[in-house]
Amino acid sequence: MKDEKIRRVPERIEPAPPDVLKDRPYEPVPASPRREVDPYCYLGATEVQQPLAYREALATIKNWCRANSLWVMAYGTGCGAIELRPLMTSRFDMARFGMAPRPTPRQSNVLIIGGYLSLKTLKRVIRAYEQMPAPKWVVGLGSCTINGGMYWDSYYTINKLDLYLPVDVYISGCMPRPEALIAGFQELMKKIKQGEANGWNEYLENIDRYKVNQKRVIGDWRMPDYNW
Amino acid sequence: MQAIFDLDIGYLGLCALSVIGAIAYGLLIGGIIRKVMARIQSRIGPPVWQPYLDVAKLFFQRTSIRHGMMFYLAPVFRTVGGIGIYLLIPIVAGMPGLAGFSFNGDVLLVIYFMFFGCLGMALGAGESGHPHAIIAVSRGLSQMSSYELPFSLALIALVAQVGTFSISGIIEAQAGGIGNWYLFMNPLAGVAGLLSFLGMQMYSPFNIVLAPQEIPIGPPTEYNSTFLGLMMSGRAIFGVAKSALFMNLFLGGATSIPEAMIKIFIVYMWAVFVGAVFPRFRAEQSVRFFLRWPTWFGLAGIALAMVLKHLAS
Fold this sequence. Notes:
The complex is a heterodimer of chains A (about 230) and B (about 325).
Chain A: H1 52-67, E1 71-73, H2 81-88, E2 100-102, E3 110-114, H3 119-131, E4 137-141, H4 144-147, E5 169-171, H5 178-194, H6 199-205, H7 207-217
Parallel strand pairs in A: 1-2, 3-4, 4-5
Chain B: H1 2-5, H2 9-40, H3 50-59, H4 69-88, H5 106-128, H6 131-162, H7 167-173, H8 182-185, H9 187-201, H10 225-250, H11 257-277, H12 283-290, H13 293-312
Helix pairs in contact in B: 2-10, 3-10, 4-5, 4-10, 5-6, 6-9, 6-12, 6-13, 9-10, 9-13, 10-11
C-alpha cells in the first residue's frame, strides 16, 4: 500500500500565467501605502480630505460596532458544525458577545469553515463568500483548514484553506472546544478593532491568484467567474 | 388647506423628535425581549442595546447589493408607512409632539397605512427574485387578509358604541379610570381585537411569513446592509405604532410618557409571551383560525355593542 501513488489535490502556488483568465470582472486595485484608515475611500472631484484624527475616530467607531455585532452565517460545512451547536446554546452562549446566526450570506459577516472542505463544498462556499457584502471575514475551524488534518491524503479535500479563500483567524484543534472557539472569536474581534482584518481587500486585490488556485482544483466550474 | 399652513414649525420639530424617540424605543423593546427570552432559557443573552449596534453595523457596511427600483423602495415604503401611522396615533393625548395629527376619521386611515407597509415589503421581496421570498410573501399576504376581518369587526363594534371615528374621541370616551377601558366595556370585541393583534405582530404562532429555520428568513432574504438597516428601523417603529394603536383603542390611552411607555410595553409583551409558548401554524391553519373564533367574538361584540347602546339610550 505504501508505494502506491496516491493522487492528491495539487496545491502548489504558481504565479498567474497571462492568458488563464480571459474575463476579468474588474481591475485589481493596488494596495495603497497607508492602510491605517480605509484605503478604498475615493474622493469626489470637489471633496476635501477630512483631517486624519476625524477619519481615525470614525474608523474606530465603525470597527467597534462591527466587532460587537458579528453575524455568523449558519452554514455547517464539515464536522466543525458539531461544535457550533453548543456555542450557540445555553452553556457557552455566543449571543452575549453580540454574535447571531443568520440564514443567508447576504446578511452575514463571518463565514465559518468548519473542518474539512471537500471540493464540491468548496465550489458552493466560494459562491456564498462572494455573495456576502463587505466587510467580511473567514474563520477556519479545526486542523483540516490549516494543514489537512485527519484527511491530509484524501483525494477530494483541500489541505490549505488560505490558497482558496482569505482566512483571518485559524482555530486549531480536532474539534476545538467551545471555549477555544470563543477565544478565537475574541481574537477576530480584537483584529477587527485594530483594523488588521482585511481579508476581503486582499481577496479582491489578488483575485487572479485565488481564481487560478480555485479553478485548478474544481473540475466542473459551471458558474460565473465572480458571483455577486 | 389653511389649517396646514397654520402649523407651528416647533410642533413639526417636536413630532420629528418623537419619531426618532419611537424608533429608539422600538429597538430597545427588541433588545429587552431578546434579553428576557435568553434569561428564560437560562443563558446570559445579548445586552439590551444590541439592536442599536446591529443597525449601526448595517449602516456602516461598505458594499450593498440591490436588485432594482422596487427593492430599493420597499424599505422606504415600510418606514414611511410606519412613520405615517405613528404620527396619526396620539401617544400621549394633549402633549405637543406626541399628540399627533389626529382628526375625524383617522381610524380608517390608520388601517389603510398598515397595509401599505406590508405591501411595500411584498413588492420588494418580489423584485429580489429569490423564490423563498416569493413563497413567504404569498403566505404572509393571505394571512394578513384573514386577520383584518376580526380586527374590522372589533372596530365596527367600537365605533358603534363610542360614536366617533377619531382616535382622540375614542380616548376621551374611555377617560375615568380602569373600569372605563374599552376592553372591559365590551369584552367580546376587545378579545377579538387583541387576538387579531397577534396576527399583526407576526410572532409565533403566526410567523409563517418570516418562518425562521424553515425557509431563510422569508421576504428579507436578499436584503443586506443599508436596506436591512432601514427595514429593521421600520419594523421597530411599526411595532411601537401598532402597540400604541391598541393601547388607545382598548386600554384607554395614556396621559403621561411613563404611562404610555408601560402600556405600549405591556401590549407588545402580550404578543411575545404568546409567541414563547406556541409553535408555528401553517398558512392555511392560521387563516382558518382567524376566520373561526376571533370572527365569532367580533360578531358577538357587535351584537353586544348594539345591546349596550340601546340600553344606554
